[in-house]
């Protein structure tokens, strides 16, 4: 009986590991709070292109607690070290968010100077203008190897709402941990109680 329980616990642990899916090896993250007086737009911000350049990529949290976008960053000598910008849309005042960048370990690069920038209204930025103030996340990619590789590296950027100072994407993990602890308590409680009774 004890052997069966041990095997069940081992299979449960393996199942949790497999269900967690693919995890990027490299991660950089920051927390930021939207100012209480930040002028939010009533409708989703739309760009008015000021040139032939593509619009700045964006992440929207309209009706969502988290969102993400994947951007391809060029690692050639001409592009390496240039800044990548992503706009953050549909945020709430006084809310704290986590910005997380992830990329595969097969690319010997690092993310540097991860930060948020506020762009005033009617200010041209990356070939675009807006009638509303904007918040963008900016970062640079720097090489970690020599010679430098020449590739397009996919960088996954996530914007995650925090509740009680904890990013909401961690809550499922906390629930699993609580359930595992509860399961251990339930399965072990009769044995512990029996041992205590035998001592008296």
UniProtKB/TrEMBL annotation:
Signal peptide (UniProt feature, chain positions): 1-25
GO terms of biological process kind: GPI anchor biosynthetic process
InterPro entries: GPI_ManTrfase_II_coact_Pga1
Keyword Transmembrane helix among record annotations: yes
Transmembrane segments: 170-189
Pfam families: Pga1
GO terms assigned for molecular function: mannosyltransferase activity
Alphabetical UniProt keywords: Membrane, Signal, Transmembrane, Transmembrane helix
Keyword set includes Transmembrane helix: yes
GO cellular component, one term: mannosyltransferase complex
PANTHER family cross-referenced by the UniProt entry: GPI MANNOSYLTRANSFERASE 2 SUBUNIT PGA1
Protein name in UniProt: Uncharacterized protein
Gene of this entry: SUVC14G1640
């Amino acid at each position: 009986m004890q052997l069966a329980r041990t095997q069940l616990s081992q299979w449960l642990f393996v199942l949790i590991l497999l269900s967690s899916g693919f995890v990027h090896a490299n991660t950089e993250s920051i927390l930021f709070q939207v100012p209480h007086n930040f002028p939010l737009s009533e409708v989703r911000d739309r760009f008015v292109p000021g040139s032939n350049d593509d619009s700045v990529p964006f992440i929207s949290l309209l009706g969502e607690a988290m969102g993400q976008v994947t951007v391809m960053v060029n690692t050639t000598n001409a592009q390496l070290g240039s800044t990548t910008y992503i706009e953050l849309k549909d945020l709430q005042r006084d809310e704290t968010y986590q910005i997380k960048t992830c990329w595969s370990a097969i690319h010997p690069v690092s993310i540097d100077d991860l930060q948020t920038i506020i762009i005033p209204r009617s200010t041209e930025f990356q070939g675009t203008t807006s009638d509303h103030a904007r918040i963008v996340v900016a970062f640079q990619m720097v090489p970690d190897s020599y010679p430098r590789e020449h590739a397009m590296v996919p960088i996954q950027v996530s914007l995650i709402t925090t509740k009680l100072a904890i990013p909401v994407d961690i809550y499922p993990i906390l629930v699993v941990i609580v359930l595992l602890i509860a399961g251990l308590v339930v399965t072990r409680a009769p044995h512990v109680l029996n041992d205590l009774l035998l001592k008296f």
